[in-house]
Amino acid sequence: MNNSAKTNAFRVRELTWLAALIALQIILSKLTVGTSIVKVGFGFIATGLIGYYFGPIKATIAGMLTDIIANVVFPDPAGFFWGFTLSAGIAGFIYGLVLFQKKITFWRVLLVVTLIVVIINMFFTTLWISMMGAVPFSKLFLIRLPKELITLPIQTIILWLVLAWVDRSKFRRIN
Predict the structure, then answer these.
(1) d(Cα 160, Cα 113) in Å, to the nearest integer?
(2) d(Cα 109, Cα 160) in Å, to the nearest integer?
(3) Cα gap 39→95, rounded to integer Å
(4) Nearest CA among 160, 73, 78 for reference residue 125
(5) SS3 sequence, the chain?
(6) Of 68, 92, 109, 167, which is the most buried if we count CB atoms within 10 A?
(7) Torsion angle, alpha carbons of 164, 166, 167, 169, to 10
(8) Are 40 and 33 in contact (CB under 8 A)?
(9) What does each of the 175 residues of the chain score in pLDDT, given as a tens digit?
(10) What is the CB neighbour count within 10 angstroms for residue 151?
(11) What is the CA radius of gyration of the chain?
(12) What is the model's pLDDT at position 38?
């Protein structure tokens, strides 16, 4: 097989995996566990895998594409808001920056989940909801804080278990 054919085969395989993980992220984001007060979704697993496999740039693009596709396929009753698309891109960037081509440890996963909770969930998501609903940011922040403190260890443990398994398995690399 010549060099061009190998490069094209890698691109097709990479694109296929990326598309599968985007689809998985959309599906997992619809699966939630918990009450209306504390609800944990599972989309972060696929987002973490995208960052782990593809790095910050591709994970940023994939995050934004995922948000747009999810809003076309499963429209939100509140409507589409570009702020959430930006947040999805930043989350992909953070996952890729912290996880891509790095050894998976519990502390690394705790770091990435903490960054996502603080930057995306507590700051950006609270800001977007505040802007959309005309609710003061500080009031909304205090309402959302306990939920995020509860989900932080749950997401950390789940993501660590998944990434640690992937890191030890034959799926460590997709090429």
Answers:
(1) 10
(2) 6
(3) 21
(4) 78
(5) CCHHHHHHHHHHHHHHHHHHHHHHHHHHHHCEEECCCCEEECHHHHHHHHHHHHHHHHHHHHHHHHHHHHHHHCCCCCCCCHHHHHHHHHHHHHHHHHHCCCCCCHHHHHHHHHHHHHHHHHHHHHHHHHHHHCCCHHHHHHHHHHHHHHHHHHHHHHHHHHHHHHHHCCCCCCC
(6) 92
(7) 120
(8) yes
(9) 566 655 665 688 889 999 999 999 999 998 888 877 677 889 999 999 999 999 999 999 999 999 999 999 998 887 889 999 999 999 999 999 999 999 999 999 999 999 999 999 999 999 999 999 888 999 999 999 999 999 999 999 999 999 999 988 877 666 5
(10) 19
(11) 17
(12) 74
Which of 123, 106, 103 is closest to 115 using CA atoms? 123
Cα-based distances in Å from 147 to 71, 116, 117, 143: 24, 14, 10, 8
Looking at residue 58, what is its pLDDT?
Answer: 95
Q: How far is CA 6 from CA 2, 10, 59, 97, 144, in A?
A: 6, 6, 23, 27, 49
Assess contact for 62 and 89: CB atoms under 8 A. Answer: no
Question: Letter for the amino acid at 128?
Answer: W
Residue 28 in contact with residue 45, Cβ under 8 Å? yes
Instruction: Please classify residue 84 by burial: count the beta carbons closer than 10 Å to its beta carbon, then call 0-12 exposed, 13-18 middle and 19+ buried.
Output: buried
